[in-house]
Amino acid sequence: METRLRIGDRTLVVTLDADTARVDDRTLAVVRPEPGPVTTTGGWTVEDMTVTVDGRPRRAVVARRSDRVLVSLDGRVHAFALGDAERRAAGGGAGSGSVTAPMPGKVVRVLVAVGDVVETGQALVVLEAMKMETTLAAEVAGTVKAVHAEAGGMVDAGAVIVEIA
Amino acid sequence: METRLRIGDRTLVVTLDADTARVDDRTLAVVRPEPGPVTTTGGWTVEDMTVTVDGRPRRAVVARRSDRVLVSLDGRVHAFALGDAERRAAGGGAGSGSVTAPMPGKVVRVLVAVGDVVETGQALVVLEAMKMETTLAAEVAGTVKAVHAEAGGMVDAGAVIVEIA
Amino acid sequence: MRSVLIANRGEIAVRVARACREQGLTTVAVYSEVDRDAPHVRAADRAVCIGPAPARESYLRTEALLDAARTAGADAVHPGYGFFSENAAFARAVQEAGLTWIGPPPDAIAIMGDKLAARETAGRAGVPLVPGAEIDAGNAKAVAAKIGYPILVKAAAGGGGKGMRTVASEAELDEALAAAGREAASAFADGRVYLEKLLLRPRHVEVQVLGDTHGTLVHLGERECSVQRRHQKVVEETPCPVMTDALRTRMTDAALAAARAVNYVSTGTVEFLLDERGEFYFLEMNTRLQVEHPVTEWVTGIDLVHAQLRVARGEPLGFTQKDVRFRGHAIEVRLCAEDPAASFFPSAGPIVALREPQGPWVRVDSGIAQGFTVPVEYDPLLSKLSAWGEDRATAARRLWHALRDTAVLGPTTNLAFLQDVIAHEAFLRGETHTGFLGEHFPAWRSGDDDAAAVAAAIALTRPAASTGATTTAAPSPFETLGRWRLA
Amino acid sequence: MRSVLIANRGEIAVRVARACREQGLTTVAVYSEVDRDAPHVRAADRAVCIGPAPARESYLRTEALLDAARTAGADAVHPGYGFFSENAAFARAVQEAGLTWIGPPPDAIAIMGDKLAARETAGRAGVPLVPGAEIDAGNAKAVAAKIGYPILVKAAAGGGGKGMRTVASEAELDEALAAAGREAASAFADGRVYLEKLLLRPRHVEVQVLGDTHGTLVHLGERECSVQRRHQKVVEETPCPVMTDALRTRMTDAALAAARAVNYVSTGTVEFLLDERGEFYFLEMNTRLQVEHPVTEWVTGIDLVHAQLRVARGEPLGFTQKDVRFRGHAIEVRLCAEDPAASFFPSAGPIVALREPQGPWVRVDSGIAQGFTVPVEYDPLLSKLSAWGEDRATAARRLWHALRDTAVLGPTTNLAFLQDVIAHEAFLRGETHTGFLGEHFPAWRSGDDDAAAVAAAIALTRPAASTGATTTAAPSPFETLGRWRLA
Hints:
The complex is a heterotetramer, with two copies of chain A and two copies of chain C. Chain A is mostly beta strands.
């Protein structure tokens, strides 16, 4: 069976068989792990797995939720999403006219108003989160159609703050 | 509701209320913990809990199975069993004429035979487990009624090896 | 002194609690409503809730902290770093409440906490200064032009990189002044800023000092903390890779002179910029325990928190400068909840999984636990990982492997970035300066396609048999993948 | 040398793997069928199954180990401790297969591995010996009578307390000879035993030596390991609390003389008994890395496994005796799966929960993980916990708190017992001898009724809200306790 996994802006096509995994055009020998302790926390299921890939035991921590898998391997986290879910989540992502708050924070200043013409990279809103100020910039050029934030207000993660078209 | 917990050769009577626990005749103020990660492993459910008892936050690791609870508190493990289960488990315990293997091991030597009269403390069987020899001794005086082991054989944990009456 | 209230949170509160209990002192943790389940609460003997999540309503409320001390019977207060650690008014309030302040004299905090007074004091003590000046409303452009761009805007009350901005030219000055002022006001309740000449490719080198109330004042060598991002230290080490005996003598003499000028007691750090010609300039003095104190502890074997406690009790240090010996090399990195591939935007939320490294000469100062939710209200620092080695290369390799043994699932962290930084050949050659990250990591990506392919295979692989865990949730796509379905 | 096969399991295999990777070497783990999921397998780059659970069918099979090395491309073998570490035939087989043996010369192993030859060699080198003698079939009683009771029966091929028995009087001699012979045959495939005078209240003090192939041989100070049970060390520390400079000079000179007598290379330990008058006697030389090597690493800053690897590659140590410096005090305890309240009967089975301590100057060398099943086939050693401090009292308190931070649920362990041992006032006064446990802990119980009551309350307390975890099993009594029922 073929599964499409999205990671960042890439899509990997993975086909699992009894003892191999094809990832794009690469074939890996995979020895399935023994079951170990399973931890559930906040909707996630976490397993420590030793998966032998191409003869090398790889120790991974894997966290699963309905539509996402996080794999920690050799100190790096690989965050995967299944096709559709990822496309939804990425809706406000790279190159989009919808500028979203990447995490909850306080709006320090709003630098544009509806009707303004903005360039790619232009500063739109200054957010403060975890004691640091960060500037959200336009990812596309265009005209500001809506601003859903005001200075001093709070925004949730993923909230659309500015719409450009 | 009253629950009887057996620990070693003692029984504790515990009554829980919304914010207190009575253990025997002692009353403790208990603040219930927030839920945290739950790990399941080999039939056990494990939780890290910070339970505030008499105003002091106590950090415990609690493992539960159907009839047993293990509580690790300040580097000490308290192993509890609910009444009946514990009585069953304790059947071959202190002062019993049934001598059981405390863990799986190899029988090195059998020192008594059916019909032998034995004293309390007399060596009955030598077991080898985890590279160490250990001698199982009679907990009661009496006559050996049965011997369920032979030199060179393996015994399981809890198996009755010698019966004395 | 029998019971210490720790007016802080996170890894430093845990670390202080450990030192206290090792001296037979009981500890009182304070926590805001979102920190109820935090590791620093679990590490203490008592815990008192002091208010809602925002620091100004909890960790920065003097009365709440003093009330907590009274309630829990604490007779001393340790401030950790950040929050009230460099607030002279708080230190005085603690003392006026009849409690022992575990830190330097409030007057020393006050002088060194005002960056302008600190410059003046250090200058009078003969310590070399970076060219710079105060500003008032209206003269900023003129002063900046006189010093010459690039310049640095710094908070008068600041520290830790907050309320600080680099300005390359006059066009950027107004916005930088406004931003730094806002950050300073938010972090220190004092929005004053001043200007300083920006040195090119300097190293950040600082000297740890330690004094008692009996007149002993020693240095514990230097630390280099050049690998910074927006003036937040990322990697710290000791010794400084380019240190010489002669330079160390000059620099530690200058640090001790600055400390003596304010009758310093307890732990403190005198920060310098070291330029490529080997000249150094006073930057500021941090009148507290430093985040990066573990590397000094590794090489000297001196427990700085134990020393703070002894000094606060009025005991002599028990050793002098000649007893301080340095052994080997130590490196620390700061594990933060931030995304190095997205402008280091801070991250937050529940720690879904946490695996921390162990082994010889590896130290973890952790402020998180699996299941704990990293709040959005505080610093993104999650934990510090440090390693010691006989030499710098060994320490770096050991730390790199320890980082690879680490797993944090949940908030995005800089874990992989840290690995790449300390494995970078310029870092391994010791070629560090405050622009190191901008020069070598202008746009970092965790770019290991091979690992991603392996991870993808692992993501879909399930154990060979049932694990005994079942959930009542609808089966996820990961549980219905044909023959890989969970048995 | 590029790839090292580690012919061992448990914590030592993990520790060796860490050192190898820090030197850029890849590692090959071997495992028996019950160790498939063991931490030492996860710590390596490659892993090869070498047979069924019993050690004689896996970890003690020369051909299987050499095959694994060939299969996985290893060009060197590290034996750890135990198993084949002191087996000269195995060391020679490794060398004859063209692989590098990471350990002392096989001839040194052979001589020191034969306790009788070792006594003779040490005696010729001028090292004081405990009165003792060989026996043959039939003359045991006569020899024992001549030495005088109490005596000790020891395995000629032995080590680590296996095949050893104390005999108080002639009546116990036959059974002791038989038991020791059986244990020795089982552990070392050599059932020969000999007799030694049993000293009263001696301390076990040993000297770590380290040599290279260029003629450098140094000592790294002593360790005291008097707290033993049935000749298995339980607590180890350095320095020895009663050590003086003069005694250390005499003892380390003796140790170096013994090592030189067998042209020693790599790490080795010369064990002595130190009596109450300050006289010491040669016990044996262990020609391997010692379990308790971390305490020496703490105080000297010398990584013994790194040193073994360098020496095996033919490199010089790079330092001499005068470069070896000692700092502070370190104590280690051995966490074992055994029940100290039931004659230390070994325990086994799955690790249901594991929480290991962390923090400054605390080290955990762990061979277990949550979910791993401790096999019945091997040593009960689970992990080693050690702490360093500026002085002995600090190290002891730090280690005690680290033990209290530890949790192991599943097999019964000696964790609480260890806490009570290192908190015992006789231990804290440094009044240790090989009969310490028998004298002070003849029948230990974890007797804290107050804690049991608190634990009972916690046992029945459930979190305030659902945790999101559900199981398909029938509700247990703990889930149906009235209002405490899981929501």
